[in-house]
Amino acid sequence: MADRVLVIGSGGREHALAWKLAQSPHVKQVFVAPGNAGTADNGKISNSAVLVSNHTIVTQFCKDHNIGLVLVGQEALLAAGIVDDLRAAGVRCFGPSAKAAQLASNTSFAKAFLDRHGIPTARWKAFTNPQEACSTDFPARVVRARGPAAREEVTIAASKEEACRAVQEIMQDRMFGEMVVIEELLQGEELSCLCFTDGVTVASMPPAQAHKRLLDGDQGPNTGGMGAYCPVPQVE
After folding, report:
1. What range(s) does the Phosphoribosylglycinamide synthetase ATP-grasp (A) domain occupy (predicted)?
2. In 146, 154, 170, 185, which residue has its Cα 20 to 30 A from 92's Cα atom?
């Protein structure tokens, strides 16, 4: 493990990474860029104002501060290829390449990948025309659009009318983007099964379940996550 580590991002995910890294006796200092209030001057952990959107500046920061390892949590930067650029400059970096990051940042790419490799997924279609998007015949629909900073906006619509309203907001008002993916809504339990891999070996983490809807009882708008728990009793 490197003596000095840089964690890139500003959310709870990066806070948790920095908190755990700081517990290692092999880590002397953890920088978080840009970080948040929880990662500001907390023992081994401190925030950095380095401009993370400029990969050249981040690379120079790593060299100036003898950063032995970079962990990128911010999805927009992964999609923009920060891992590729840091590795090309000789900086050790944990995270997917820009091409691999499309599986999380680009819904149409991910769905096409699943279909191409015979991996079961909900029926779906991608649209650039709002009138065509409103014509899908799925009984219940999930409307997805890639939003600002590669953030995905998701609307779970119980009716065709509700789905069309979401499509209009996304495509005609250009709130989130110019393409939407509409897929069939699958009912039931949703679990996350994450793995670490170096390209050869795969190590799985325990399954977890996240709460996405804003209100109790799976009600209200869909969010990026209202919390999660692990282990999951539904999975042995």
Report:
1. 106-235
2. 146
